[in-house]
Request: fold
Amino acid sequence: MKLDTFSSAGFDRGSSRTAEAAWLVLSGLLVASWLPGSGWRVRLLRAFGAQVGTGVVLKPGVRIKFPWRLRIGDHSWVGEDVWIDNLGEVTVADHVCISQGAYLCTGNHNWSRETFDLVVQSITVETGAWIGAKSIVGPGTRIQEGVVLTAGSVANGTLDCYTIYRGNKAVAVGQRRIAPATSD
Reply:
């Protein structure tokens, strides 16, 4: 490859350079900071175009590339130091848990082309899924309803409903069964 021939000229950033610069400053100072609290993070994301549902928890250290390309459903949790590197759309449904240090990446490069072209694909995480700590979710991945991606695993492609995945490359290791809540 010849990196001097790379060009991102065709990439649509989805917002103005001014909005992107403002987001970089505010997210670096506030969203990714150690400061406690979630509500003000949600409001700031919404102010920059993210669609964020009710009851969403965003922990300190969260990094989000482009909030205008992010949708998070109701009652989902995003843990400390999660990085949502969303050059493309990232959709997180209701009741999803993304644990500490997980990395969701929508961009890659075409290593078979001399120009190392940028390739962007969306990520979808469906209702009730759990992405374990330090996991990586690659471009174009669809994590279906109820999936568990165990800590440190690497997901690409489609992960089937209510299945537990582990490893690099994440492979199915069992079925997820959820017991109903009991009263004590």
Observations:
- The longest strand covers residues 171-175.
- The chain has two helices and 20 strands.
- The radius of gyration is 17 Å.
